[in-house]
Design goal:
With 320 residues, the chain is of the alpha+beta class. The chain contains 9 helices and 11 strands. The strands form 2 sheets. The chain has a 6-stranded mixed beta sheet with strand order 7-9-6-10-8-11, with helices on both faces. It has a 5-stranded mixed beta sheet with strand order 1-2-5-3-4, covered by helices on one side.
């Protein structure tokens, strides 16, 4: 099988269709486009999600484990509370590596305002580099459940396409970018500070967001498709309005990658009835954002009518 996430059809056919809803606390079975599960325990809702980190070196795996998972909860309209972290280490890992990862997990958790609640740590020859799988636990009031994108909502995107991918290329694959201006590599490494979408989630909730989706594997276009799939709507996207950093453009041009299909943790799509008000609030908080499209009744497509395909393997896997 190819590297990366399963395509949506295969995921649904082989996995998701086999899991019915059987518990009254559950809001429903997993489905395409939904990154979080929601449970009703009475006064509040518990929102949970889990994601692995498999493509980062040990120096960044801690922060990515925290922010990628907190981002899922924030995109679901919930406030992240704590994390359970499974840490798998190859046999050549050292105690210094373990301590460094724990230090980074602790610092990132403080930055995100969450606790590390526990997990599991193991040295195994089943992995050749450090791998984490993290579960986030979050809470939301019953009234805080997002209803889903609605036709005519503005689609607002925060930050930039390919954000995490650009950071990973600059830090883990710099040897492939020797022909690129060294200043691009320096600036790309500063993207580390922009991986969390928790701040924009809080603002979006204040401005009546109907749906949010963090931009992970499959990039902006994959996230657009999944945002629409959450509630069976469509989207019309202005390709030229999607923000792309010069560093991302330079790296992707050098490696033959599509920046709009490159992993972009730290960026988020927000479907909101008043896009202008939301943009004003985001800009006022110092968060870059742009309106890139509108929710529609049909499928996901560009403004020239070209369909947007379902997400496949992330562009990052093309260089492995």
């Amino acid at each position: 099988m190819r590297l990366g996430k399963l395509d949506n059809d295969t995921l649904d056919r082989l996995i998701l269709q086999k899991f019915p809803k059987t518990r009254p606390e559950s809001f429903g079975p997993p489905r395409i486009g939904m990154d979080c599960a929601t449970l009703d325990f009475g006064s509040d809702l518990i929102v949970t999600s889990c994601d692995p980190i498999t493509s980062a070196d040990a120096a960044r795996v801690g922060a990515l484990s925290v922010h990628v998972n907190c981002n899922d909860a924030a995109a679901g309209g919930a406030e992240p509370v704590g994390l359970l972290v499974t840490l798998l280490l190859p046999p050549d890992a050292t105690e210094d590596t373990v301590g460094m990862i724990a230090d980074e997990l602790a610092a990132a958790a403080v930055h995100a305002g969450v606790d590390i609640l526990g997990g599991h740590t193991e040295v195994t020859d089943a992995v050749t580099r450090v791998v984490t799988c993290t579960t986030v636990l979050a809470r939301a009031p019953k009234a805080g459940v997002l209803p889903g994108a609605k036709p005519n909502d503005a689609i607002v995107m925060t930050k930039w396409a390919g954000l995490e991918g650009t950071l990973l290329l600059a830090t883990d694959h710099a040897e492939r970018l020797k022909a690129v201006d060294p200043a691009h590599l320096c600036r790309a490494k500063e993207l580390y500070a922009h991986l969390s979408v928790v701040p924009e989630s809080r603002i979006a909730l204040q401005y009546g967001a109907h749906a949010m989706h963090d931009v992970t594997e499959g990039g902006v276009l994959g996230a657009v498709f999944e945002l629409a799939a959450q509630t069976g709507v469509g989207a019309i996207i202005d390709r030229e309005a999607i923000p792309v950093l010069p560093e991302t453009e330079a790296f992707c041009a050098a490696l033959g990658l599509d920046p709009l299909r490159l992993i972009a943790s730290g960026a988020m799509l927000i479907a909101c009835p008043d896009g202008d008000a939301l943009l004003g609030a985001l800009h006022g908080a110092g968060i870059p954002a742009a309106r890139i499209g509108t929710v529609s009744d049909g499928g996901a497509r560009f403004s020239d009518g070209t369909p947007i395909d379902p997400p496949g393997a992330d562009e990052l896997y093309r260089i492995f």
